């Protein structure tokens, strides 16, 4: 019987060593993650990365309604989140531009400002007006290249003055 007792003692020591090694590895992982989060926050500002379950991360999300009730409900927050990059994807003539014009109109009705970067050179002002867009307050750019369109978009985004910036369309940015 003594060999069994000795074997149990060895197993307990091995288990303790394994548990200690796992704890040490977990602490090292957490420290590395904290360093990465700190670096991202330092480079890109507060809120660039956060734990979703933390109360500050679950703050109320400002939205701009799309005017499509089913879509607003499906998005789960009542519209498109303000301050986020949103891509509307679909086949040609599926209503992507119409949806974006509705979003612009709703942003303007709430006192917001919008820009439309018309890379396709196809914006119809009369149609936009029928959808409720205030043409006098809409900034429009018809860039000659994708690079110019993205530079204009970046400059407008960095101004923090606009509620909506539309690029119509991503496909038109590629030569």
Name its key features:
single chain; 175 residues; mainly alpha; Rossmann fold; 2 domains; three-stranded parallel beta sheet; two-stranded antiparallel ribbon; 5 helices; 5 strands; 10% strand; elongated
CATH class of the largest domain: Alpha Beta
CATH superfamily of the largest domain: P-loop containing nucleotide triphosphate hydrolases
**Helical content, roughly?**
40-55%
User: What spatial order of strands do you see in the largest sheet?
Assistant: 4-3-5
CATH topology of the largest domain: Rossmann fold
How many distinct beta strands?
A: 5
Mean of residue pLDDT values: 88
Shape: elongated
Into which percentage range does the β-strand content fall? 5-15%
- Specify the structural class: mainly alpha
What string gives the helices and strands in order?
Answer: HEHEHEHEHE
Can you tell me about this structure?
There is one protein chain. With 175 residues, the chain is mainly α. The chain folds into two domains: 2-56; 60-173, Rossmann fold. The protein has five helices and five strands. Strands 4-3-5 form a three-stranded parallel β-sheet, with helices on both faces. Strand 3, helix 4 (125-130) and strand 4 (138-141) form a beta-alpha-beta unit. The longest helix has 43 residues, at 2-44. The N and C termini lie far apart (82 Å).
In brief, what are we looking at here?
The protein has 175 residues and is mainly alpha-helical.
């Amino acid at each position: 019987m003594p060999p069994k007792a000795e074997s149990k003692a060895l197993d307990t020591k091995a288990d303790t060593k394994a548990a200690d090694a796992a704890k040490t590895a977990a602490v090292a992982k957490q420290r590395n993650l904290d360093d990465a989060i700190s670096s991202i926050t330092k480079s890109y500002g507060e809120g660039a990365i956060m734990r979703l379950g933390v109360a500050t991360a679950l703050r109320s999300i400002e939205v701009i309604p799309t005017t499509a009730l089913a879509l607003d409900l499906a998005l789960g927050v009542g519209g498109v989140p303000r301050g986020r990059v949103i891509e509307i994807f679909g086949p040609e003539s599926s209503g992507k531009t119409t949806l974006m014009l509705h979003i612009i109109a709703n942003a303007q009705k709430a006192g917001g400002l919008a820009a439309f970067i018309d890379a396709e050179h196809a914006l119809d002002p009369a149609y936009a007006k029928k959808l409720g867009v205030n043409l006098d307050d809409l900034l429009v750019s018809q860039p000659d290249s994708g690079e110019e369109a993205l530079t204009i978009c970046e400059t407008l985004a960095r101004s923090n003055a606009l509620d909506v910036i539309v690029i119509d369309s991503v496909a038109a940015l590629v030569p």
